[in-house]
Design goal:
Helices cover 30% and strands 24% of the residues. The chain has 16 helices and 26 strands. About 15% of the residues have low confidence.
């Protein structure tokens, strides 16, 4: 039997008796105690009486469960007089009389501004017994599966900042995702380190009152410096009180708490590492990185889904974008230009997910692509001539194949005196020319209004007197407007799209034109494509992580109802070496594009040697 007293802040107190040893607390019907408030999760906490002890467990709630003012990270034994806080409610438990007689009362935890001191010191035997009980209860919670899924509550005014990610002091990365993830979760030092981070973070909130601090009045550097000083003060007091185990790297802990409080948590280190190209947060307990073209499972994790949500909010809020249950997907960018995609529940079943494609601070040049064997010097010379001769070029390839990098390199060939207008979903292009206007689309606001699409921007830029139009990526109906622009005097335009071969590229163009809503016959669409597109540059990312231009293909016109293509250069793969690196060579087909003949007739010098066998 459990006797429960429930008191709401500023409200009445109620007492309830339960003739069983286990009850659940949450916001929705089906719980034994229903607390209908926004800062209470659907399934928030559980109270269990076993072997004469009463244990409270937090069911991965959004805003946490508190005992005597401290947020619990594991099952905790409670005694008469202890106050359990769930949202705006205070719950106290009265166990059976014989338990009260056997169990001495424990004083509440006292707190001071900035530093909380432990006043409850229990005998070692009782601590060990409580820890054993907590481990047993934790196993039960882990076995519950989806019944205890965390609810993302964006409306809570009382929401506490997310706890920082667990981070063992020294742990090598491992490529085996499921096993390694489980090991990290159950590693005692990992759990202890995570608990310590949460404790420091919670004390930091009291110390600086971060949620109400007028951050706008502080510069970024001063804010970080002030916060770091506060963390060091807190850590100093904790070390004096013996609350920091000897194996903990204090400097590392200060850095992790600082990143969690003001930065992007465990992602900060990845963003600072120039060898990492992409960061993929599958869910809070699994982060992959791409280094040197290879995917690796990182040893770092977030402590909760709420921590991932906090990072997403810090990324999108400065851009005026939003992400919530009504708009659970967002594209954004970081200050350094890195592209970010985030998606949250209910669309992301395992929890909030983030994908970051880092943008290199130093823009790659064609010479560097030649050095990396992405293409040959002759191919680079040919592409330069195509751009200067105002040929319309489509860069085609799969995800992560390097299309945007190639588009940047091609844009560098545009003469300085020409006016360039770029149109993108999330600004990535880095042009060097001075006469450049960059346009970026805009999602709808919270009322579903104010959206500006790529198609709207393409139409608008036609009124801006462009010499060149560069569309970061064609994905839908804007393709028709792009083709019309190419056919109406805006030669030399550039764009990218997703396709695996030059022939697939043409099919994708047809499909995207149909997405514009225009009821056009297929032949009319193909004629439009054949007259607008001059060159297709096909890019491929191989299994060893290398990226190569596999085809440079000319669109030569129509033959009956089929668009005809002619390869000018292609990459001939010849197997793999002992290190599983792709082996092959670039081949010139010997075909000379039509516009080269025109250039020769006009007396413009061209290098015909590049069309011989490479």
């Amino acid at each position: 039997m459990l006797s429960i007293t429930i008191a709401e802040k500023g409200g009445a107190t109620k007492a309830r008796d339960f003739q069983r040893d286990e009850i659940t607390i949450g916001r929705i019907q089906g719980n034994d105690i229903v607390l209908p408030r926004g800062n209470v999760s659907k399934k928030h906490a559980r109270i269990v009486q076993r072997d004469g002890k009463v244990v409270v467990l937090d069911l991965k709630s959004t805003n946490g469960t508190y005992v005597n003012g401290k947020r619990i990270g594991a099952p905790q034994v409670v005694k008469p007089g202890d106050k359990i806080q769930v949202g705006d409610f205070i719950i106290q438990i009265t166990p059976p009389a014989e338990v009260i007689a056997e169990t001495p009362s424990r004083p509440s935890l006292g707190t001071t501004r900035g530093v909380k001191k432990r006043l409850d010191v229990e005998p070692e035997e009782e601590v060990a017994e409580a820890e054993a009980e907590a481990e047993e209860e934790a196993e039960e919670v882990e076995d519950m599966g989806s019944a205890d899924e965390e609810e993302v509550s964006a409306t809570s005014a009382e929401a506490q900042p997310a706890p920082p990610p667990p981070r063992p002091p020294s742990r090598p990365a491992t490529p085996k995702a499921p096993e390694s993830a489980k090991k990290r979760e159950r590693d005692p030092r990992t759990e202890e380190y995570s608990r310590l981070q949460r404790e420091v973070h919670n004390r930091l909130i009291d110390y600086l009152d971060l949620r109400r601090m007028e951050i706008e009045r502080l510069g970024d550097e001063e804010l970080w410096n002030q916060t770091e000083r506060a963390i060091r003060d807190i850590m100093g007091q904790m070390e004096k009180d013996g609350e920091v185990p000897g194996w903990v790297d204090v400097e590392l802990l200060v850095k992790d708490v600082l990143n969690e409080a003001l930065g992007l948590g465990p992602l900060e280190e990845f963003l600072a590492d120039p060898s990492i190209n992409e960061i993929m947060v599958n869910h809070s307990k699994q982060i992959y990185i791409e280094r040197g073209g290879k995917l690796q499972l990182s040893e770092k994790t977030f402590s909760s889904d709420q921590a991932v949500l906090g990072v997403i909010e810090r990324i999108v809020a400065p851009l005026g974008r939003r992400i919530d249950e009504s708009s659970p997907m967002v594209d954004a960018r970081l200050k350094d230009g890195s592209r970010v995609n985030a998606i949250i529940p209910p669309l992301a079943i395992k929890g909030p997910s983030i994908t970051i494609r880092k943008f290199k601070k130093d823009v790659l040049t064609v010479d560097q692509l030649v050095k990396y064997n992405t293409l040959t010097k002759g191919m680079a010379e040919f592409l330069e001539m195509c751009v200067k001769a105002r040929k319309n070029i489509v860069v085609s390839g799969g995800t992560g194949s390097g299309k945007t990098t190639t588009l940047n390199c091609l844009s560098a060939f545009i003469p300085e005196e020409e006016r360039i207008i770029t149109v993108e979903d999330a600004a990535e292009l880095q042009l060097r020319q001075e006469h450049w206007v960059a346009l970026e689309s805009r999602p709808p606001n919270i009322e579903g209004k104010g959206q500006i699409t790529i198609r709207d921007l393409v139409r608008n830029c036609l009124r801006m007197r462009p010499d060149r139009i560069v569309v970061g990526e064609c994905r839908g109906g804007e393709t028709l407007d792009m083709l019309q622009a190419m056919n109406t005097g805006h030669d030399g335009s550039l764009t990218t799209l997703h396709a695996n071969t030059p022939r697939d590229c043409l099919s994708r163009l047809e499909t995207m034109v149909l997405m514009s809503g225009m009821d056009l016959p297929v032949r009319a669409i193909r004629e439009q494509v054949a007259s607008a597109i001059n060159m297709i540059v096909q890019q491929t990312r191989f299994s060893d992580g290398s990226r190569k231009i596999t085809f440079i293909t000319e669109v030569t016109g129509m033959e009956e109802d089929i668009i005809s293509l002619q390869n000018i250069f292609y990459f001939k793969q010849e197997g793999f070496d002992e290190n599983n690196k792709v082996m092959g060579r670039y081949v010139a087909t010997g075909f000379i594009p039509k516009f080269y003949d025109d250039l020769q007739r006009r007396g413009i010098p061209v290098n015909m040697d590049i069309f011989r066998e490479q």
